[in-house]
Design goal:
- The structure is a single chain.
- With 134 residues, the chain is an all-alpha fold.
- The protein has one domain (10-112).
- Helix content is 52%, strand content 0%.
- It is built from three helices and no strands.
- Helix 1 (3-14) packs across helix 3 (80-112) and helix 2 (52-76) runs antiparallel to helix 3.
- Bound molecules: zinc ion.
Length: 134
């Protein structure tokens, strides 16, 4: 893969634009996927990032912030309202803003790498057992 493809993937993915034309928007609202590109007509039916973005957000943002909350609790034993005004908003600020660009990046990556569900290859299997070779 050359550098142009990487830059294009990041560019269209993080801007949440159509991976084919780079113009049409991917989402209708916050993270609801549009049925097709408004600019080039690309059917977004191929796009299925599933839990991918949620997994990466959980691993990169939610776990460290939760660890911070646990550390805060165990070290200072603060009243509950401290967590309500510090830990909870920190958790939301760390996770929510990156959902959309990360989902866009996953969808653009699916399109550019032609990712799809795995399928079993159908091929002829030679006969085995007592009747083999007759
Ligand atoms: Zn398009």
């Amino acid at each position: 893969m050359d550098g142009t493809t990487d830059r294009s993937l990041l560019s269209v993915g993080l801007r949440c634009r159509c991976p084919r034309c780079g113009e049409g928007r991917l989402f209708d609202g916050f993270i609801t996927l549009k049925p097709a590109c408004e600019a080039c007509g690309l059917d977004y039916g191929f796009a299925d990032p599933a839990d991918g973005p949620a997994f990466f957000i959980m691993m990169s943002m939610a776990f460290p912030v939760t660890a911070f909350g646990i550390w805060l609790e165990l070290t200072y034993d603060p009243p509950l309202w401290i967590h309500a005004v510090l830990t909870l908003p920190l958790l939301l600020l760390a996770c929510v803003p990156i959902i959309r660009p990360l989902k866009g990046l996953f969808i653009a990556s699916q399109y550019i790498n032609k990712a799809e569900e795995g399928r079993f290859a159908v091929r002829a299997v030679p006969k085995a057992g007592p009747e083999a070779g007759r």
